[in-house]
Design a protein that fits this description.
Bound molecules: ligand FJE, fe (iii) ion
Number of helices: 4
Structural class: alpha+beta
Strand content: 35-45%
Protein name: Pirin-like protein
CATH superfamily of the largest domain: Jelly Rolls
Main location: nucleus
Keywords: Nucleus
Organism: Miscanthus lutarioriparius
Subcellular location: Nucleus
CATH topology of the largest domain: Jelly Rolls
Strand order of the largest sheet: 3-24-21-26-19-16-15
Helix content: 10-25%
Length: 429
Amino acid sequence: MTPRVRKRVVCNLQIARVHLMELPRAAWAAAAARAGQPPRLNLFFTHRITKPAVVVNHAWGISSGVPSPRPDGHEPTPTRAEAAMTTTMMRLRQHLGLASSPAAIYTSAIAGLGNNTAHHRRRTTRPRIMSSSASDSASPAAPFEKPRAVVKKVLAESQPEGQGATVRRSIGRHELRSLDPFLLLDKFSVSKPAGFPDHPHRGFETVTYMLEGAFTHQDFAGHKGTIKTGDVQWMTAGRGIVHSEMPAGDGVQKGLQLWINLSSKDKVIEPRYQELESKDISRAEVDGVEARVIAGEALGAASPVYTRTPTMYVDFTMRPGSRLHQPVPEGWNAFVYVVEGEGVFGREKAAPTTAHHCLVLGPGDGLSVWNRSDRSLRFVLVAGKPLGEPVVQHGPFVMNSRAEIQQAMEDYYYGKNGFERASQWSSSA
Ligand code: FJE
Ligand code: FE
């Protein structure tokens, strides 16, 4: 590192410190006021200078009050406060003249904002609950007896995430905090220079499925690769990964990222990748319905992916006029995310669901779908065996207790217990 460069880094860091300590507080206070609760937040920041002219900055907001645990053990993540933090960071970047410098400052600011009462008070509209009736069975051709009905329908609105990126979050947004074992589903749309620069993960898996375009991934252990349209990267973060995920092509790069929780025993395993190229993904086509099987099996096709937390993940494309009866293991939590077109889910007489909606499925052993529109319907069906363990999430760390979260943050900060390479590494441009 040359002295000139070092000076610049330190300078950025100092400016960043001053602003970070002030601006987010204001942003948090405003977000708290909107949420109808006092701004009682302490923030602390970890700084790492990883290479010349690049300050990778992970900012964590910590609520000073101890949130009362929800029955499911899940801590609320304030999407609005998170968005406010992202906006603040973007302003700060502009102020510092860093707007065009890749990965100059990156924040993954996710925090527990206050307690759960506030979380519920903020919810203005209750999700519509659709009920199923016993007489409403699927057509006789259905290979199952207890068709699953849609019990919740949520629109995944666009929100800022990462560095200048946009996601439509379905699982993980406040109306749908989690659906054990799933923590998050983002449909991302990202153009250069935006992306998801260097950030950590511990305690769960991320599954990135490219819908259009390409994304390059680099991690602190030297793992590097680009996934293109139709490819899947199944990353088991286990005890720790630090990586960057950035668009590889020109124009908008689109995909889905799903976060699957790991059981307590799997949270500490060595990280692992399973990568599937589009051509190697099992496909089947039956009566106008095409299935691309990312995990589990459908229409006679099976995926080679090993799922530590038992998971089914299928990308269906249904031609106009087609119908589908897909078994879904009983006892598993299941949802649908509509990518394109519109379809009728669960009950033959249900109102059609259009793109960007997430449907949570009720109990049963299968899902029926009808495409009565005049264009193709594309959706993913995801199901997983619930872990039934407490979930304590703090941004990219998902553990079973607050103490384990504290440990994860310490390990990341000090480079211990799986994060040894974190302090030496930063992604290359
Ligand atoms: C993250 C902020 C983030 N959705 N979809 C905070 F942006 C991320 C993160 C992503 C992400 C990455 C891709 Cl490629 C697609 C995403 C969030 O990287 F992990 C935290 N904690
Ligand atoms: Fe990531």
